[in-house]
Amino acid sequence: MDCENLTIHTIVPFHLKDRDLSSSDIWYRELHFERGHHYHISAPSGSGKTTLARILYGLSTAYAGSYFIGDRHAKSLDAGEWSRLRQKAFAIVFQDLRLFDELSARQNIEIKNELQKSSSDAEIDEMLQKLGAAHTAARESRLLSQGEKQRVAIVRALCQPFTWLILDEPFSHLDAEAARAAARLIAEKAAARKAGVISLQLEDDDFFPYSKKWQL
After folding, report:
1. How many helices and strands, by DSSP H and E, does the chain display?
2. What are the residue ranges of helices labelled H in the chain?
3. Cα–Cα distance between 113 and 110 in angstroms, integer?
């Protein structure tokens, strides 16, 4: 499936339809995302940031308007097609991280990597090392701090093939130094895959050389 471009055309989540959204750059607008570019969407709490991430990743169809992946309407894709997209084209760092508490950090990463064998053990070790999280590998996720969990979730997303990387508050539990280290790693892996990055955050930042910045 062609994933070079994503387009959202006058979409709005059903639960936001009664709000005044005239100041939004996203809802009820037409936007184009091109592979290889970085996009920043700043969004105050309650404006639909996580909802937009779920729409882009195919986890929500509770919206009016149209979302296209290449020339395919997202709502026309069946479960199998979405499964393949999430294995080969779409990676995501969820705001709530979604780690399995009873598994170690390394096991959480390997579950994702097992599907495609995209990253070697050495590459995973290197990514954890770059994020200062090598010490977490053997520890159960339930014992990790939120910042450590966030680092693991980032590595889990980066270890798979992807054309698009969706980031929902990826640095919220990291200090400035750790956030910049994570941003450098994300930029490096995205560049290697010629991937597009869509970063949704509460506030504006300068972590990436963004092609576009919008307010949700």
Report:
1. 6, 9
2. 49-56, 79-88, 105-114, 121-130, 146-158, 176-192
3. 5
Residue 8 inside a domain? The answer is no
Confidence (pTM): 0.95
Q: Is position 22 within any domain?
A: no
What is the largest distance, in Å, between two alpha-carbon atoms of the chain? 51
Distance from C-alpha of 140 to C-alpha of 119, rounded to nearest angstrom: 22
CATH of the domain at 54: 3.40.50.300
- Please report whether residue 42 resides in a domain: yes
Find the domain containing 49 and state its range.
36-61+77-215
Quote the pLDDT of residue 46: 82
Cα 171 to Cα 53: distance, rounded to the nearest angstrom: 15
Mean pLDDT of 175-189: 96
23 within a domain of the structure (yes/no) = no
